[in-house]
Amino acid sequence: PLFELEEAQWRYQENSSLFFVGNQAHFPNYLAIQWLCKTFAPLLMIENPDARIVIIGAAENSVPESWYSPNVEFLGDSTKEEVVRRFVTSSLFIAP
To answer: Mind listing the pLDDT tens digit for each residue in 27-55?
Structure first.
């Protein structure tokens, strides 16, 4: 079987945005977000200070302060349209 082509398709946007989507209430996503914030984000800042990690599924006021980093943006819950927009415009998508 073949998949039908989606109208919205990824195209390189020359941005430094890394995208993760996953509700933090699901424990594997919680662990993935924790790793992104506490382990990956500091290393990414060294290698590419302009890169940003954008997370849908966790709000800034719902994560521990130790997860805060200048290069991490917590968007909380979002709409399907915003998730699709991030999928097709971010330079990289990280899946747990």
So the answer is: 999 999 999 999 999 999 999 999 999 99
**DSSP letter at 5?**
P
Which pTM does this prediction carry?
Answer: 0.85
Distance of alpha carbon 75 from alpha carbon 49, whole angstroms: 20
- The DSSP bridge partners found for residue 40 are none
CA–centroid distance for 91 within its chain: 11
d(CA 44, CA 56): 19
- Which alpha helices (H) appear in 36-79, and where do they start and end? 41-47
Amino acid at 85: R
For the CA atoms of 71, 76, 79, 85, the dihedral, rounded to the nearest 10 degrees, stands at 10
Give me 91's structure tokens: 């330079």
Distances (CA, A) of 59 to 11, 51, 72, 91: 27, 19, 11, 22
Output the CA angle 78-25-68, nearest 5 degrees.
Answer: 75
